[in-house]
Design a protein that fits this description.
Helix content: over 70%
Strand content: 5-15%
Number of strands: 15
Structural class: alpha/beta
Length: 800
């Protein structure tokens, strides 16, 4: 496999980055934490998904990317002359995974979704992600880790890298299968019965089944005879039951007719009583003639007096309303003159505001002018003070050194010029002191004037605030005056309306005592009128009640005829209760006999079924016994097979380990010879893959050598392991390797030798990726990607 291009979008520290990889030595350099290993991890993620990365899936997306931005890696690689493109993507806040793989020249993807793409890649390369890292990626610090492991742990780790552990797992599985077969055979042997015993049980149970079958047939014959007798008794009982039901139906109907007759007689008596009550009401109604006319006249008189009473009440309300509005208008008129006078006085004060603001503006302008002058004086005084300090320092230096002091202009000793120079400096210092004193006096006078202006401006401000308060009072007084005038207008409008309504009412007379007497008479006549209406209602239904009386008398005669007819039908039926009871008892007795015979049949059937069930169980057990005997024979054959398989795996592992360890040692020795210019040419591995190096004919353990030489030996071993794993993959070899931080402990000469050895490996590894923070390898690697940190969260890569 050759990696051709890699495109990263929002992947960890890379916001947007593209890489092109030639078939060569390719270096990634940069500070620790810049993201060098991240590039190789992105290749692994594209091929094998999240299980090939550090941390959890949610950490893969760049911290600078929002939830709406996708994290994406696109990898192009070539295998056996065919190009493939793999895409993996994380979308949304929950980081939903998408994946697909395409072959060049085919539009449809060969696999989709995360698991589908990972399975396709594993099948295509013939490597799962663990084997991929073992053969391709020597992770950072893995080299020293091999040397620091305990012997047993190191042997297991390297066996896992070269897949010898797969043989161990297969042998363990074969042993577990052998144990399982032995346990199963032992268990089956313990539970075996003799076939002869089961066959004897089968014959005895068959005889019992035949006997129970005859008993069932006999019981069935007896039950059939008793069922015929039960059927005859049932037919007699059903006939008598029909007569009994008809008798009960007619008796119920007779009772119903008698109840209806009693109801008609009761209704007849009630109608006669109502007719007697109506006759009495007719006599009372004749004695109350003329009540309705008197009630109508009294009601009309009462309505007239109530209208006059309402007008009198309204007239009284209007008189009170007029008095109230006149008093309110007079009360509102009193403060108007006072408010007008106060407004005039405040307006006179407010006229001063415009003049005051002009005066304040002039004071502020003068204050700004004085402030600018003071700032200029302070700056000049500071300059004079600084210059004076420099002059004093120079003067004191010249006096301290005397005539040997260097000239401030030409730097030669002053000698005879010492006197004139010191006099000149004294004169300049005095001039600076006088100038500083004069500037300080001017500054003091300016500050006094500035304070006077501030005080005057403050007094003006107080006066202005007072005048602004007067303006606010004017607005308040004007609002009070407007409100008072509006209320007066409102009262005048209400007063005029009340006067108009009072004139419209006019003059009239109303007597409250006369109204009370009429009202009392009205209430008395109203009760009498209501009684007359009730009597008229009762008398109005007299004809209806007479007709109802005639109809009830006729219906009563017809009901008596129906009762006589029903009683005659009951007599003609001739129902005999004793004959019915005798038939019912005979049916019940024969039914009990049938139930006894049916129970006998049921028990015989159960006995037959039980015998048949036992027979079937014995037959099944006999069948299972014969099957188990055949199964045990097969298990014995399988046990012999797995015992042989265990022995073969044991011999194969010994053979494989005996071949691979010398092969790895030979490859590592060749690399060590190349990288040390022949100083060390033989690297030996013990059974636990502990390293020993032959130096001038003597063999020494790795701990004897320097730290750089130990790292170099570990590197040679790690590359040799990758070579062997790649050769033994059984598929198209993965023709690339990644070496992480392998130059740190090596000097420049050793680095050059390592690179030269790696160049010779390009016949097998056509791409060798080297990750390092050592800047010097820029000068010795043909292709360099420099990884730089843009900020705390982002990195970029560029070819240098």
């Amino acid at each position: 496999m050759i990696i051709k291009t890699l495109e990263l979008t929002n992947y960890r520290r890379f916001r947007s980055q593209a890489f092109e990889f030639p078939q060569n030595l390719i270096g990634f350099i940069g500070r620790n934490g810049a993201g060098k290993s991240t590039v190789i991890e992105a290749i692994a993620w594209a091929l094998y998904g999240t299980r090939a990365t550090r941390g959890v899936k949610s950490d893969i997306r760049s911290q600078q990317a929002s939830d709406r931005e996708a994290c994406e890696v696109v990898l192009h690689f070539e295998l056996s002359g065919v190009e493939y493109r793999v895409m993996r993507k994380l979308r949304g806040k929950s980081a939903v995974a998408e994946a697909a793989v395409w072959q060049a020249g085919i539009d449809e993807p060969l696999a989709v979704q995360e698991q589908g793409v990972s399975a396709f890649i594993e099948d295509l390369l013939g490597l799962d992600y663990r084997s991929f890292f073992a053969s391709v990626f020597a992770r950072q610090k893995d080299l020293a880790a091999l040397a620091s492991m305990q012997p047993e742990e190191r042997r297991k780790t390297i066996n896992r890298l070269i897949n010898i552990d797969a043989v161990d797992r297969a042998r363990w599985l074969a042993g577990e299968k052998r144990k399982q077969l032995q346990a199963e055979l032992s268990g089956m042997n313990a539970m075996l019965k003799k076939p002869e015993d089961l066959e004897e049980q089968q014959r005895e149970l068959q005889q019992q089944v035949d006997f129970e079958s005859k008993a069932v047939a006999s019981a069935q014959k007896t039950l059939d005879g008793s069922l015929k007798k039960l059927l005859a008794a049932r037919e007699e009982l059903e006939k008598l039951t029909a007569i009994r039901d008809k008798h009960h139906q007619l008796s119920a109907e007779s009772g119903k007719l008698l109840a209806e007759e009693a109801g008609l007689q009761r209704s007849l008596r009630e109608v006669k009583a109502e007719l007697a009550k109506i006759d009495k009401s007719e006599k009372t109604l004749q004695s109350m003639q003329g009540v309705k006319e008197k009630f109508q006249q009294c009601r009309e008189r009462k309505n007239v007096l109530e209208d006059l009473r309402l007008k009198a009440g309204r007239k009284k309300e209007l008189v009170e309303t007029l008095r109230y509005y006149r008093e309110q208008r007079a009360a509102e008129n009193r403060p108007i003159a006072r408010l007008e006078q106060e407004i005039a006085e405040y307006e006179l004060q407010a006229s001063r505001l415009s003049q005051l603001e002009t005066e304040m503006k002039k004071l502020e302008q003068e204050q700004q002018s004085v402030q600018k002058a003071l700032d200029a004086l302070r700056a000049r005084r500071a300059g004079v003070e600084s210059t004076g300090k420099d002059l004093r320092k120079k003067f004191e230096r010249i006096r301290e050194l005397g005539k040997d002091s260097p000239c401030p202009v030409c730097t030669r000793p002053l000698a005879e010029h010492y006197g004139p120079v010191t006099a000149h400096f004294e004169q300049e210092v005095r001039a600076m002191r006088e100038q500083y004193k004069k500037l300080s006096q001017d500054l003091s006078r300016g500050e006094i004037r500035l304070e006077e202006l501030k005080h005057a401006l403050g007094e003006k401000q107080k006066e202005r605030e007072k005048l602004l308060g007067a303006l606010a009072v004017i607005e308040q007084k004007r609002k009070q005056l407007d409100d008072a005038r509006k209320r007066i207008e409102h009262y005048q409008s209400k007063e005029k309306g009340a006067e108009t309504e009072l004139n419209e009412l006019g003059d009239f007379e109303f007597d409250e005592a006369d109204y009370a007497a009429v009202k009392e008479e009205y209430e008395r006549l109203a009760k009498m009128n209501e009684h007359v209406i009730q009597l008229e209602t009762q008398v109005a239904v007299k004809d209806e009640k007479v007709q109802q009386l005639q109809e009830l008398s006729k219906a009563l005669g017809l009901k008596r005829d129906e009762i006589e007819t029903c009683n005659k039908a009951i007599a003609d039926l001739g129902y005999d209760e004793k004959a019915y009871e005798a038939a019912r008892e005979q049916h019940e007795a024969r039914n009990n006999v049938v139930e006894e015979h049916r129970q006998t049949l049921t028990e015989a059937s159960k006995a037959k079924i039980a015998a048949e069930t036992k027979l079937q169980s014995v037959e099944r057990e006999l069948k299972e016994l014969r099957e188990n005997l055949a199964r045990m024979e097969s298990l014995r054959d399988d046990l012999l097979y797995y015992q042989a398989l265990d022995e073969h795996f044991k011999l194969f592992r010994q053979h494989l380990s005996g071949r691979l360890r010398p092969l790895i040692a030979a490859r590592a020795s060749e690399l060590l010879r190349l990288t040390t210019s022949g100083r060390y040419s033989l690297l030996e591995l013990d059974e636990d893959y502990g390293i020993a190096i032959v130096d001038q004919g003597d063999t020494f353990p790795l701990a004897r050598f320097s730290g750089g030489e130990q790292d170099l030996a570990n590197l040679c071993l790690r590359i040799a392991i990758s070579q062997v794993v790649a050769e033994r993959s059984g598929r198209q070899p993965v023709q690339c390797i990644v070496l992480d931080e392998v130059f740190g402990s090596q000097d420049a000469q050793r680095q050059s030798l390592i690179l030269d050895a790696l160049n010779r490996l390009q016949t097998q590894f056509r791409q060798i990726f080297i990750i390092s923070h050592v800047e010097q390898i820029k000068d010795i690697l043909p292709v360099i990607y420099e990884i730089t940190m843009v900020d705390e969260f982002e990195s970029r890569a560029q070819i240098v």
